[in-house]
UniProtKB/TrEMBL annotation:
InterPro entries: HAD-like_sf (IPR036412), HAD-SF_hydro_IA (IPR006439), HAD-SF_hydro_IA_YjjG/PynA (IPR011951), HAD_sf (IPR023214), PGP-like_dom2 (IPR023198), Pyrimidine_5'-ntase_YjjG (IPR052550). Pfam families: Hydrolase. It comes from Vescimonas coprocola. GO terms for molecular function: 5'-nucleotidase activity. This is Noncanonical pyrimidine nucleotidase, YjjG family protein. NCBIfam families: HAD-SF-IA-v1 (TIGR01549), YjjG_YfnB (TIGR02254).
Length: 227
C-alpha cells in the first residue's frame, strides 16, 4: 500500500458543504434584492452558475467575469432589473461566513493531521475561501491553502499544480494524493499534473470516461485505508 505524506484536499463539496452554503447565500441575495426565492429560481441560478464555472474550467473566462456574469444571466432570464455586481457581493459575503463541513471532514482532518501534511487546493474566490477556512473547525489541521486567484492559474491546469509544488517543501509526485469531488477540475487536474488522485463521490455518480482514477471513496473516513 503506497504511503502519501502530503494530502491535497479540494475545498468545496470535499471538505466544505458548498451546496448548503450556496443555497443559504442564494437566500441572502433573494432577501436583500427582492428576488423570488423558490426551488425553481434557485435551479435557474444554478444552471447559470454551473455553466460559467464550466467555462472557467475550460479557460474561457476569468473568475472576476464569472462571478458577475452568472448573476447577469440569471437576472436576464428572470426579466428582473437588479444589479448583478451587488447580487454577487451579497452572495460572496454570505459564502465567506459559512463554515458548514461535509460529513466527517473535521474528524478526518484532525486524525490525518497527526501523521500527514494537509493542504487545500481550490479554484474558489480567494476572499471567500480564506474567510471560510479561518472560521472553520478544520483550520487548525490545514498547513496551507493554494487558491487559483493567488496562484495565477487554476485547476485542472498543470501550471496550477506546478505552483503548488513550488510552495511545498519535500513534496513529490509520488508522495502526495489529491482528494476531490470534481472530475473536471480535481481528477483531470491530477491527471494533468501526473499525481495520484482519489475521487470523493458520495452520490455514486457514473464513472467519468477518459480519466485515471486511482481511488474512489463515498465517505471521507475511507481515506484511512488509503493513506
Amino acid at each position: 500500500m503506497p504511503h502519501y505524506s502530503y494530502l491535497l484536499f479540494d475545498a468545496d463539496n470535499t471538505l466544505f458543504d458548498f451546496d448548503a452554503a450556496n443555497r443559504n447565500a442564494f437566500h441572502a441575495v433573494c432577501r436583500q434584492c427582492d428576488i423570488p426565492d423558490t426551488d425553481e429560481t434557485f435551479a435557474l441560478y444554478e444552471r447559470c452558475n454551473n455553466a460559467m464555472w464550466a467555462a472557467f474550467d475550460r479557460g474561457e473566462c476569468t473568475k472576476d467575469f464569472l462571478v458577475v456574469e452568472r448573476f447577469r444571466r440569471f437576472l436576464e432570464a428572470m426579466a428582473l432589473d437588479r444589479d448583478p455586481a451587488l447580487c454577487n457581493r451579497i452572495h460572496l459575503k454570505a459564502l465567506g461566513e459559512s463554515t458548514l463541513l461535509r460529513p466527517h471532514a473535521e474528524e478526518v482532518c484532525r486524525t490525518l493531521s497527526r501523521t500527514h501534511r494537509l493542504y487545500i487546493v481550490t479554484n474558489a474566490v480567494a476572499s471567500v475561501q480564506r474567510s471560510r477556512l479561518h472560521r472553520s473547525a478544520v483550520a487548525p489541521y490545514i498547513t496551507d491553502a493554494f487558491i487559483s486567484e493567488e496562484a495565477g492559474a487554476s485547476k485542472p491546469s498543470r501550471a496550477y499544480f506546478d505552483y503548488v509544488f513550488a510552495h511545498i517543501p519535500g513534496i513529490t509526485r509520488e508522495n502526495c494524493l489529491l482528494i476531490g469531488d470534481s472530475p473536471s477540475s480535481d481528477i483531470r487536474g491530477a491527471n494533468n499534473a501526473g499525481i495520484p488522485c482519489c475521487w470523493y463521490d458520495p452520490h455514486g455518480t457514473a464513472l467519468p470516461e477518459g480519466l485515471r482514477i486511482d481511488y474512489r471513496i463515498t465517505d471521507l473516513r475511507q481515506l484511512y485505508d488509503i493513506v
